[in-house]
Design brief:
The chain is α/β, with parallel strands linked by helices. The chain is built from 11 helices and 12 strands. 28% of the residues lie in helices and 15% in strands. Helix 2 packs parallel to helix 3. The N terminus is likely disordered. The protein binds S-adenosylmethionine.
Length: 368
């Protein structure tokens, strides 16, 4: 079986298709099983130990910087089943993934998602995985927090850009702040460590960030700020709200004492300690400083497409590999071939001259 552009799920847009590396792998040459557990090391010597899985591209919110109001989602028939996603995750775990994040779309709106969480939780119990976590908008947390904790999830990220109910409705289009706060309450009551993620948006929430930070730290939660990235067409001009975090940091430093600390959670955030609150502030700066040199991640979509970089179009079709045989040796070989193409990094730019998405797909496809 050969992999080529036509064998990819259609979550690769036109831009993606153009850049596809049409790998050719003969299934009969798949390596024997004992090679399946060799670590995944990319051409730049970076070891891949972190897998992010977008379990659905659907979401119950329509955040204005993330999605257009009227999105076309993938047909359900193109989705991998939860069992197939589990098989892919297990293949990655066998190949050295130690941290796995479920994301989306909104991971908790995928039907029966707790089946996958429970199965992956067993990998933690067995010592094959160090951490199972998820990124969520919090809308379904009241319902699922206790079960997540029971399955071995210890930390979650909740995306929350404002504490003002009207602004929350404006940015999410469909969201209700009280539901998210109830979800955070439920998560903390269940013993989950919660980190708040906020996209810093000029003229929208920049003035509120100090209050958001005091609130998060007051509840024992880290706050991480994210620069808005040029991914997918939305209904507005991203330049209007783009805020470099170097600028946000300078503004915060007028009122707070920020000290760089080596604390890491295995992701791209760099942390400072805030003397006045005693809490931690994370900064994710894909635009102003991309940290690609330490990238340890790859991203799997709900159709089984593997993106080796959030900001590039090259991808590998694991769905075809998965469905072509029950033998994981071939799948393992396709994964190795893809890791061998992991690019050095992305090159996002947002300014008036580069006023187009760097990649056609939305963040909800690849998973944030
Ligand atoms: N629904 C879940 C949530 O809200 O956290 C998971 C998926 S969402 C795509 C993951 C994260 O990506 C969220 O924190 C969201 O704010 C962020 N995000 C979405 N589009 C973005 C963009 N264009 N630039 C930066 N962050 C973005």
């Amino acid at each position: 079986m050969r992999l080529d552009a036509t064998s990819f799920g259609h979550d690769i847009g036109a831009a993606g298709r153009k850049d596809l590396n049409t790998a050719a792998i003969d299934q009969t040459n798949a390596r024997p099983l004992d090679k399946m557990t060799a670590p995944m090391i990319d051409p730049f010597g970076r070891m891949v130990t972190y897998l992010r899985v977008s379990v659905t591209d659907r979401c119950d919110f329509r955040c204005t910087y993330c999605m257009a109001e009227h999105m076309t989602f993938l047909p359900k028939k193109d989705l991998l089943t939860l069992e197939e996603l589990q098989r892919l995750c297990s293949a990655f775990i066998a190949k050295g993934v130690r941290k796995l994040r479920l994301t989306g779309g909104e991971p908790l709106v995928r039907k029966n998602i707790m089946f996958l969480v429970r199965e992956l939780g067993k990998e933690i119990e067995a010592g094959r995985l160090d951490e199972l976590t998820l990124t969520t908008n919090g809308s379904q947390l009241s319902k699922f927090a206790a079960e997540l904790a029971d399955c071995g999830v210890r930390r979650i990220n909740v995306s929350l850009d404002t504490l003002d109910p009207d602004k929350f409705r404006e940015i999410t289009r469909w969201g209700e702040l009280t539901k998210v706060i109830e979800g955070i309450d439920a998560a903390q009551a269940a013993g989950l460590k919660v980190k708040i993620n906020a996209v810093a948006l000029k003229g929208f929430n920049d003035a509120e960030i100090p209050d958001l930070m005091r609130w998060a730290h007051g509840r024992g939660m880290d706050l991480t700020l994210i620069e808005t990235m040029p991914m997918g067409e939305i209904d507005e001009d991203r330049t209007d709200h783009y805020l470099p975090l170097s600028e946000m940091r300078e503004r915060l430093e007028r009122d707070f004492t920020l000290k760089d600390i080596p604390y890491r959670t295995g992701g791209p955030a760099r942390y400072v300690e805030v003397a006045e609150t005693g809490g931690r502030l994370g900064l994710i700066t894909p635009m102003t400083h991309n940290f690609c040199e330490s990238c340890n991640r790859v991203r799997l979509t709900c159709t089984g497409t593997l993106y080796m970089c959030l900001g590039q179009n090259d991808a590998a079709d694991l769905r075809a590999a998965l469905r072509s045989t029950d033998d994981d040796a071939y799948l393992s070989q396709v994964i190795d071939e893809a890791i061998g193409r992991k690019p050095k990094g992305h090159d996002f730019i947002i300014d008036r001259e580069h006023n187009r998405p760097a990649v056609a797909r939305h963040m909800s496809v690849t998973g944030g």
